[in-house]
Amino acid sequence: MSEARGAAAEIRQIPLAKPWLGEEEVRRASEVVRSGWLIQGPHVEEFEEHFAAMVGARHAIAVNSGSSALLVALAALGVGRGDEVICPDMSFIATATACLFLGARPVFVDIEMRYSALDPGRLEERITKRTRAIVPVHYAGHTAEMGPILEIAERYGIATLEDAAEAHLARYAGGRFAGTLGALGIFSFTPSKPMTTGEGGMIVTNDEALARRGQVFRNFGDHGKFNWSELGFNFRMPEVMAAIGLGQLARLEESVRRRREIARRYTAALSGHPRIATPVERTPEDTNYQLYTIRIRGGGAEASRGAAGRPRAAPADRDEVARRLAERGVSTRLYYPAFHHQGVFRELGPFDDADFPNAVEHERTALSLPIYPGLMEEEQVYVIDHLLDVVAE
Ligand SMILES: Cc1ncc(COP(=O)(O)O)c(C=O)c1O
């Protein structure tokens, strides 16, 4: 019997993600509740200032979710009916549905296999006269290939909006922070992120005019004193969320440091395994390891047909690995299936899997492992041992 099998006698339950909150957040949130000043108060302003300073942006605009941040940022760029917005074929759904809400059409580009982000080599072929914005996504907290993406965007005079929802404190090529390289960047603060406010989001930019437009769209399109000259949203961040966010900002660097440490341990134990591909780093600072996503090699490589006759990624050994790990208490998940397989985009099709081979491969083989600051060393070892055991079966 292997060691892992022996350890399985006492099965642990290990979630995929867990927020890291402390007394400081409790104190700050309680203060807000006691004050009775629940919206448009000093905490949101302070949170914006501190967040902007942390990532080196001139302006930060706090909103009530990352999805809201995407909508506000796209609206600030003037994206609307008839426009096209280019994004990768693999991300969280909000990246692309934000375009649909504004009447624009998301145009999908395949991902590259190193960082699982928008492939700059496939970008130019999707640019048309209608392209209004390019939205690279820093998947799993790994920065996308921003150098070539920005070069192409600038050559065509198209704005870049970075979806840095997962990429707090990641630095592109070890330099500027994710979210500050394009015209605008957005972040999410849901509980699985390196910092959380429950729900919450942030838009950052160095452009004064875009910042002003963002503030207007976040607040009903109000240009001041009930002057509603544009269609806006109510996406303001409540004070309690900003208070929690201020507490979380204080521990963000440590949160990311711990994630990188866990990732180092995982990679040291798993890399070189014939059935496991571990994440690739451009530099250690290029990623915050919001997710630790491996690929499971081998098994059902052929494409199959879904119930509607639509080509779909075949269920692979990955699903079996996930199932067996779940039996041993280890939560894992596919982040994310390909956009062009999602029913919500059916009217944009038909799509051909052959245009998105890497996103299809990702959908078939990717598996994210538990990672969060409170994941104890023995739990990391438990995940590693059981994964190695399961892939050997
Ligand atoms: C890449 C990406 N974009 C957008 C979002 C949307 O953020 P939220 O869930 O805060 O609305 C998320 C996260 O959940 C995400 O991971």
Query: What is the percentage of strand-forming residues?
Result: 5-15%
N→C terminal distance: 13 Å
| Largest sheet, spatial ordering of strands | 1-7-6-5-4-2-3
Shape: globular
Order of helices and strands: HHHEHEHEEHEEEHHEEEEHHEH
Top CATH class of the largest domain = Alpha Beta
Summarize the structure.
Helices cover 36% and strands 12% of the residues. It has 393 residues and is an alpha/beta fold.
Give the arrangement of secondary structure elements.
Layout (H helix, E strand, L loop, with lengths): L2 H5 L15 H13 L6 H14 L3 E5 L2 H11 L7 E5 L5 H8 L3 E5 L21 E4 L11 H11 L2 E5 L20 E5 L12 E5 L2 H11 L20 H32 L5 E2 L14 E5 L7 E2 L5 E2 L4 H11 L29 H9 E4 L7 H16 L1
Parallel strand pairs: 2-3, 2-4, 4-5, 5-6
Antiparallel strand pairs: 1-7, 6-7, 8-9, 9-12, 10-11
Helix pairs in contact: 2-8, 3-8, 4-5, 4-7, 8-11
Pyridoxal-5'-phosphate (PLP) binds next to α4 and α5.
